[in-house]
Design goal:
Number of strands: 6
Oligomer: single chain
Distance between the termini: 53 Å
Shape: elongated
Order of helices and strands: HEEHHHHEEHHHHHEE
Strand order of the largest sheet: 1-2
Largest sheet: 2 strands, antiparallel
Radius of gyration: 22 Å
Strand content: 5-15%
């Protein structure tokens, strides 16, 4: 028997699997490049809702040929798409990653194609998908209680996107086109309800510059020479 008899069209299989998973749960808005969760999806548990959204992102390549949206997403993007608070999204993502259901790279999460069958099966069940809960000793339980108490005290900030997430979003949206100063970056982050001290911003700008994602030059502004960072 020739080896060609053992080949499959992997892209076709993926499209069929994606369609089976998102059916009656997801609609695509190609014009605005958005994934819309239908009422059937909103009744799912948060971990399944996140998986469904990440699976749907893999379907864009079958709908849009040019400038295809990313197949991965940041926690903030997942929060906006699913309506799940950021403080809940991050622990779920960590749990799914620990179980090798999803993968992450540079703070963005994605469903590997080889896990589509596993996810289809998980979405048909009702038991929790997240991290496995293990038994703890009394000392560990007490320690965890203290940690949980501390976590509750800072919960008011848990849903806010981090500086790193906000910076990544601005880079993705090409916000630095035309050049931006540190003060302009601070104002934009404030607009996004991210309020970092201005002294934290240069390290992010320099890091992007060293990676080649930004170029910088000194320009005269109001009689002063200041650094301007630009995407090209």
């Amino acid at each position: 028997m020739a080896l060609k008899n053992h080949t499959i069209d992997s892209s076709k299989v993926s499209e069929e699997q994606i369609e089976a998973i998102i059916a009656d749960r997801i609609k695509y808005d190609p014009k605005n490049q958005k994934v819309v969760l239908l009422p059937n999806a909103r009744t799912l548990s948060n971990d399944r809702k996140i998986l469904l959204y990440l699976v749907a992102l893999k379907g864009w390549k079958f709908l849009i040929e040019k400038e295809t949206p990313h197949e991965d997403a940041s926690p903030l993007e997942i929060t906006h798409a699913t309506g799940i608070p950021g403080g809940s999204v991050r622990p779920i993502l960590r749990g799914l990653e620990d179980r090798k259901i999803i993968i992450t790279h540079k703070g963005r999460y994605e469903v590997p194609s080889h896990n589509l069958s596993t996810i289809q099966s998980l979405l048909s069940k009702q038991d929790p998908i997240g991290p496995v809960v293990t038994k703890h000793s009394k000392a560990e339980s007490k320690s965890n209680s203290v940690k949980n108490a501390k976590a509750k005290r800072v919960s008011s900030n848990s849903n806010k996107p981090s500086l790193a997430e906000g910076f990544a979003i601005l880079m993705e949206k090409k916000w630095f086109k035309g050049g931006k100063t540190t003060n302009q970056l601070k104002d934009k982050l404030d607009e996004m309800t991210i309020f970092p001290p201005i002294e934290q911003l240069p390290s992010h700008l320099l890091n992007a510059y060293r990676k080649g994602n930004l170029v910088r030059s000194k320009q005269n502004t109001d009689g002063k020479k200041i650094w301007v960072y630009e995407q090209r």
